[in-house]
Amino acid sequence: MSTPLSATFRAILMRDIRLAWSQGGTGTMALSFFMIAVTLFAFGVGPEPQVLARIAAGVIWVVALLACLLSLDRLYQADYEDGSLDDLALSPLGLTGVAAAKILAHWLATVVPLILIAPLLGMFMNLAPEGYGILLLSLLVGTPALSLIGSIGAALTVSVRRGGVLMALLVLPLYIPTLIFGVGAVDAAMGMVGSSANLALLGAVTLVALAIGPFASAAALRLALE
Amino acid sequence: MHRFANPAEFNRLADRILPWAIAVMAISLVAGLYLALIGSPPDYQQGESVRIMYIHVPAAWMAMFTYMVMAGASFVAIVWRHPLAELAGKAAAPIGATFTALALITGSLWGKPMWGTYWQWDGRMTSVLVLFFLYLGYMAIWHGFDDEEKAGRAAAILALVGVANIPIIKFSVDWWNTLHQPASVFRMGGPTIADSMLWPLFIMATAFQAYFVVVFLWRMKLEINQRKLSVMNRAEVYG
Amino acid sequence: MDTPEPSFDAKALSAHGLACRRGGRMVFEGLDFSVEPGALLYLRGANGSGKSTLLRLIAGFVPAADGELMYGDDAWGTGDAALSEAVVYVGHDHGLKPALTLRENCQTYARIMTGKSLSENVLYDAAETFALDRLLDQAVRFFSSGQRHRASLMRFLLADRPVWLMDEPTVGLDADNREKLAGLMTRHLARGGLILAATHDPIGVAGATVDVSQYAARATVQEGWL
User: Fold this and answer.
1) I need a labelling partner for C30 at 20 to 30 A (CA). Which of A66, C70, C131, C169 fits?
2) Contact A180/B145, CB-based, under 8 Å?
């Protein structure tokens, strides 16, 4: 008996997207957090348009990163608690494939909405007109790395009580390159310098994360199953 | 290798190495400190502040070296499921974190007279700061699990993910630094360092290395004894 | 069930000198058993003797400290394709998503395990067996704990796999449902399936018994540490 693996992959993908946007899912929460936290910065640094414009890209990137981190907390924990992680482990896809499907679902269901709402927040933050396109592009290229690396942290802390803070501690240092190149791309574009170098490096970081993320996540999940 | 899988065997080996390591540490520390603080000339540009470098530079080296030890031990732990290798990572981490903190503190003490500020977002300092965060995460994950064996394997996975990311982090921080900083930041090192400064530096580096060996072996023995203790407690509970 | 169901192409599952270590302690060692296709093996033993651990070991979640598991002539363990195509495991956790309806839960489970959607007949029959047919379109968060347990047992009927691993399947079942469960097991065995069940409760299906307590490790701690 052989099973069409792509159908299994799609089943996990659809399940997680569905759950992220159903009651108690992380989709709406991450989006709300994203909007509220960005406006907090305006209150924190004052409403001067020049100041806000200067920090707009950095603030949006940092808050997107934190929103992503918050939502990753439950990536595997819900499945671990209700026992469906056992079922997933017995899927013909194998745990690496399961992790890849769940990471993709997280990115599509939770992170892509953040990217879509980012222009609105750019407006709040008085982002310069030439910044919008590159902000979206940098988020699009860079945020998959956040889901991929964050998945490792989520899998490592899945059986840890109150693992959320621990996960942040493990994952945040690893987010630094993505943040640097992501904000660097926007800054370079607004300084009328080409941002292609930053974007290429951002893409490279995402590719490295893609090479490591599903495998390290699966190894960590195997630990949680024991 | 499997000979040292046996904790008792490892303890015997450690006891043979320890006296020598302590001797090397004591001699090189005395000689190194004398040369660094008294026997070497002040720098024509930095004055007496240059002496901080004899602590700072070896500490920064050891911060990196210790992480490599941890990563190597973690690799062995994952591939061969070797319990002593996990403990080696656990034993090394606080030493590495201490070296990292020492490098950061001496770096900022040196920065005050040189840069006029305790903290500058200099590329090297920032990288060392991130390394410090990586150590904190590694040590924290050991405390997150009730089961020591699970904790050890989780920590090993984390250390390997960390070591794969260190070059990327280092590169990105340098990149960020050149974006935001004028290139005029003074950099210690380079090929023009005088012999009179090189010798104390190397002797201090030897002292730090020996210190690492001594404390590492002590901590390994401690970890082994603690593991034994918990094993004996369990034996009592389960009969 | 007018048409006879196709029989499984199952092989014998056997353990040789199996040992398992958890939390630094040897749970059991030297465990041997063999289950032929069409046979049932009861796992008995005192609390803490390692029945659940043994089931999780067979499911590939927990690594064996020593010994081997064979499925026919193939090794059987974590990550082996043979395992993730053959096993259904139902443990103490129900593996249901509260936000989804029972129908959605079942469809998702079947797609993850087989890559195919369930036919309405199979789904309805499975639900009817455990008296859940009226609840198919009800969200699982409204279910009582007994209903959740019965819903979790439905998984045996949804994945169509030869090796059933059951951990305390009768807990919380009334006489009527136990009879239904016994009927299912008999039918599964008749198709050439294998069942390993950890239970104190005689379900009324004939089978051999392994007492896991008898394999309690003599030295519970790892050598070299004392």
Assistant:
1) C169
2) no
**Domain C13-215 CATH assignment equals 1.10.10.10:** no
As a whole number of Å, the end-to-end CA separation of chain B is: 32
* Interface-testing mutation among B231, B232, B236, with chain C (most C C-beta atoms within 10 A): B231
Give the chain A residue nearest B169 (alpha carbons): A177
- Between CA B177 and CA A173 the distance in angstroms is 17
DSSP state at residue C197: E
Answer whether C71's CB lies under 8 Å from C11's CB: yes
| Tens-digit pLDDT profile for residues C139-196 | 999 999 889 999 999 999 998 899 999 998 888 888 888 888 999 999 999 998 999 9
Side-chain half-sphere of A207: how many Cα atoms within 13 Å?
6
Query: A125 Cβ partners below 8 Å, 6+ apart?
Result: A38, A41, A42, A52, A53, A55, A56, A59, A60
Within an 8 Å CB–CB cutoff, is residue A123 touching chain B?
Answer: no
Q: Is B144 on the interface with A (CB under 8 A)?
A: yes
In chain C, what are the domain boundaries? Answer: 13-215
Domain ranges of chain A: 5-225
Please tell me if residue B149 touches chain C, with a CB cutoff of 8 Å.
yes
How much is the ipTM here? 0.90
Angle A219-A223-A225 (CA atoms, 0-180°, nearest 5)?
A: 115
Q: Does A223 contact C at CB distance below 8 Å?
A: no
Chain C segment 92-121 residues within 8 A of A by beta carbon are 92-100, 104, 108-109, 111-116
